[in-house]
Each structure stands twice: as C-alpha cells, then as structure tokens.
Amino acid sequence: MLTAxxxxxxxxxxxxxxxxxxxxxxxxxxAAAQHRAYESCLRELDCTVVSLPVEAGxxxxxxxxxxxxxxxxxxVMTRPGAAxxxxxxxxxxxxxxxxxxxxxxxxxxxxxxxxxxRLGRRVLVGASSxxxxxxxxxxxxxxxxxxxxxxxxxxxxxxxxxxxxTQVAPGTVLLNPxxxxxxxxxxxxxxxxxxxxxxxxxxLLVGEVAVYPEAYPRTAARLERAGVTLRxxxxxxxxxxxxxxxxxxxxxxx
Length: 254
Fold this sequence. Notes:
Helices cover 21% and strands 26% of the residues.
C-alpha cells in the first residue's frame, strides 16, 4: 500500500524557478484543477493521498518530490539546489515523520529529489545544476548502512535526472538518450522517447501502472506496444513550471 504526499497548487506558481524553459503565463485555476485530477488518479490507483495546503510565497512548493528521498528504512530531507526552495522542506518533514525516521542533507551540499532514481537497491543521482557532489556524497553515506549503492549520473539539457529517465515497469526504463547515457541502464529494458517528444521521459510508476502525461502520444504508443499499462493525465499547466508527474508526489510504501 502507498501513501502519496502532495501539495495543493498556490497562486505563486507563476513565479516558479525555471532553468531550461522560457517563462510563459500559467493558468493557476487550470493548474489547480489538473493537480486535483492527478490526486484523484492516485486515489484510483489505491494510494492514500495526504494533500498538504498551499505554502504561501513558495512558487515551486507543489513539486514536493524535490524535498525528500524516501526509501524503506528512512526519509532523507534534501537541501534543494535552488535557494528559494529550501523553506519547502520543513512542512514535508512534518508530513513524513509519522512514516519514516528522518535524516537530512546539510550545507554546503545540495540535492533535489527529482535527481534521484531508485532501482531496487541501486540509487542513481543526477549530477545536475541542482545536485552537487557533496549532496550526492551525503546521500551515499546515509543510504550505505541500509544496503543501497549510490551512483552519480551525468545529465545534460534538462533539469533533473528524472526529466531524462524514469522506471515504467519492473526492469524497464523510459529515457531520452540525448539527455542521459543509455549505457548507464545496461541490463534493463530501455524504451526511448519519440524524438519529436524530448520531454516525454517522465512517468510515475504506481504499482504496475505508469501515470503518464497525455501530451506525448507518440511515446505513449511506444510504451503501450512494449506492454506498459498507462493512466494518462493532463499536466500541461504544471509543465510550464518545469514540473512533471513524478514531481507532484512523494510515494511512501506502508
């Protein structure tokens, strides 16, 4: 069983951090409606959704994934690479405390949860503009006693590792080979995004179902041909804030 921790969309999303996208107007009401539909999708997939209230003044706070890395044994609170996002972690720590012992990444290290892809006991971390060697090293030290290996993975052209690759089924990843080296995932089944849809590598695996943006039909067709079960959601307004389906929840197994 899974608990999904989410946070409601606030009006400050229009002032979100952007790295690889140009700023365009965001329809806040539509973004909030899309987020509610996303939460409903998680409930339909048997998640217990803990929907946290808006964090005033924090434009990226809906993207809760970046604030924590959760494994079976503990939750590691991150120190986000964007300084404006660091106040987001306190309320997420309170939300996670009933489920896991807490640890934390400390200064000067920085780490975003969106850079962390867990494949069993193998944890891959994007060496991105938001996660540095110090932060990655601290995560390695925190997880090693529990039997996890932590590997730094170069990424380019995108915000986070999970912008470039995500798990879509047991033993199967979806990736953009222009943003991450496919050979990192040797031994796994690899599905490449359609070249016309470079942002299509982000999917959220919930049990045996991949929650996936409806904006990428060509890649969705590739996934379905490979036998991946999809639940399509509209996150077009959230995508304008450089968000995606993994960004909007922290999944905690119970």
